Amino acid sequence: GAGVSQTPSNKVTEKGKYVELRCDPISGHTALYWYRQSLGQGPEFLIYFQGTGAADDSGLPNDRFFAVRPEGSVSTLKIQRTERGDSAMYLCASSLASHNEQFFGPGTRLTVL
Amino acid sequence: RKEVEQDPGPFNVPEGATVAFNCTYSNSASQSFFWYRQDCRKEPKLLMSVYSSGNEDGRFTAQLNRASQYISLLIRDSKLSDSATYLCVVLMDSSYKLIFGSGTRLLVRP
Q1: CA B24 – CA B86 distance, rounded (Å)
Q2: Is A28 left (phi over 0), alpha (psi -120 to 50) or beta?
């Protein structure tokens, strides 16, 4: 079956702009996670959804970052007033339930000029 | 101090060599341990889980030492296709947040 998909695969934007990154989890997976990976580092947790609700958003770096999952499937990560330091690979993962194996999508590479 | 520490490498080895990576973790409450593989500009993929008794999957052997808070991955008979970054990952009890090390880069040369 289809894996996790993310769009766009690459996004280049200018400092101060707003961006949205989309994640389509594996069908039937109730848990969804966003991670951010900077160059030379491992992925870092941002937010976890169980169904439609954000069960844990403790990894979001500041209030410019927000994520939604209105119907319990597709999720959108939203970044306002982007800064150069936001440049990174944004990875989405999903799992059948919260303690099952997480499957990662191919990521969105965000570049803020 | 980072929660999960790894030697970044790169480890440059010839085909057929045996290579070992180590990883240390700082939180003794860590309960589950994994090795992920990440190819250049791709997503991480689960390579294997790590159990206290040690486990083997073909050419790959993982070991866990809880007393020393140390995890290892041994790759025997290295193949060119093993070239990748290997990420050590830890999960706290009852948690869902994967905690990644920075990765160890392996280059297998012909």
Answers
A1: 14
A2: left
CB pairs under 8 A between A and B: 44
Environment class of residue A48 by beta-carbon count within 10 Å: exposed (0-12), middle (13-18) or buried (19+)?
Answer: buried
For position B34, what pLDDT does the model report? 94
Is some CB atom of chain B closer than 8 A to the CB atom of A102? yes
Q: For residue range B62-98, what is the model confidence (pLDDT) as tens digits? A: 999 999 999 999 999 999 999 999 999 999 877 889 9
> Are A42 and B87 a contacting pair at CB < 8 A?
yes
Measure in Å the smallest separation between the Cα of B96 and chain A Cα atoms. 6
Residue to substitute from B50, B90, B98, interface A, most A β-carbons within 10 A: B98
Cis peptide before A70 (omega within 30 of 0): no
- A29-66 confidence digits (pLDDT tens): 999 999 999 999 999 999 999 999 989 999 999 999 99
Asked whether the beta carbons of residue B98 and residue A91 sit closer than 8 angstroms, the reply is no
